[in-house]
C-alpha cells in the first residue's frame, strides 16, 4: 500500500558517489528517494514516479540540468525543482532560469535539506 504522507524526491546527478550520498541522507530523513544518473533517466523517472520535488545537477553529459528543467516544466509547471551546481559555475545563467532555487554542491547537505523542506511545505496538500 502506498503511504501518501511520504514525500518522494528525485535526484539526478551523473556522479555515483553523490547519488549514494543523497540516497543515504534523505532516506534516513524519511523521504522516498528516486535516483537518476543522467538527464534522460531523470525524465523517464519523473514520468514514472511523479516525485514531489526534484534536485537536478546542472552539469551532466547528454542532457544538462537546464534542459531537464525545461522539459519537466512543460509537463508540470508547479513541481518544485532545485538545480545544483559546483561553486562558481552557471551563476549568471541561473538568474535567467525558472528553477525554484539552486544550491552550490557540498558534502554538507544541511542547506539542501532546508530548501527541500521549505519548498515542500509551500505546496498545497494533496497536490
Ligand atoms: Mg555533474
Q: Explain this structure to me?
A:
This protein has 5 helices and 5 strands, in the order βαβαβαβαβα. With 127 residues, it is an alpha/beta fold. The protein has a single domain, classed as Rossmann fold, CATH 3.40.50.2300. Strands 2-1-3-4-5 form a 5-stranded parallel beta sheet, sandwiched between helices. The protein is globular, with a radius of gyration of 13 Å. The relative contact order is 0.16. The site of magnesium ion (MG) has 6 residues, from loops.
Question: Helices and strands in order, then pairings?
Answer:
Blueprint: E1 8-12, H1 16-28, E2 32-36, H2 39-49, E3 53-57, H3 65-75, E4 81-85, H4 91-95, E5 101-104, H5 110-122
Parallel strand pairs: 1-2, 1-3, 3-4, 4-5
The structure holds magnesium ion.
Magnesium ion (MG) binds next to loops.
Approximate shape: globular
Tally of structural domains: 1
Can you identify the CATH superfamily? Response regulator
Portion of residues in beta strands equals 15-25%
Largest sheet: 5 strands, parallel
Bound molecules: magnesium ion
Could you estimate the helical fraction of the residues in percent?
A: 40-55%
What is the number of strand segments?
A: 5
State the main characteristics:
binds magnesium ion, globular, 127 residues, Rossmann fold, five-stranded parallel beta sheet
Amino acid at each position: 500500500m502506498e503511504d501518501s504522507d511520504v514525500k518522494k524526491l528525485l535526484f539526478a546527478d551523473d556522479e555515483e558517489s553523490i547519488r549514494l550520498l543523497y540516497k543515504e541522507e534523505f532516506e534516513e530523513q524519511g523521504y522516498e528517494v528516486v535516483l537518476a544518473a543522467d538527464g534522460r533517466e531523470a525524465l523517464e523517472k519523473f514520468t514514472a514516479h511523479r516525485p514531489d520535488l526534484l534536485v537536478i545537477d546542472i552539469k551532466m553529459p547528454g542532457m544538462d540540468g537546464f534542459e531537464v528543467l525545461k522539459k519537466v516544466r512543460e509537463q508540470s509547471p508547479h513541481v518544485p525543482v532545485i538545480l545544483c551546481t559546483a561553486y562558481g559555475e552557471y551563476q549568471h545563467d541561473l538568474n535567467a532560469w525558472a528553477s525554484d532555487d539552486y544550491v552550490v554542491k557540498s558534502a554538507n547537505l544541511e542547506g539542501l535539506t532546508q530548501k527541500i523542506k521549505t519548498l515542500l511545505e509551500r505546496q498545497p496538500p494533496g497536490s
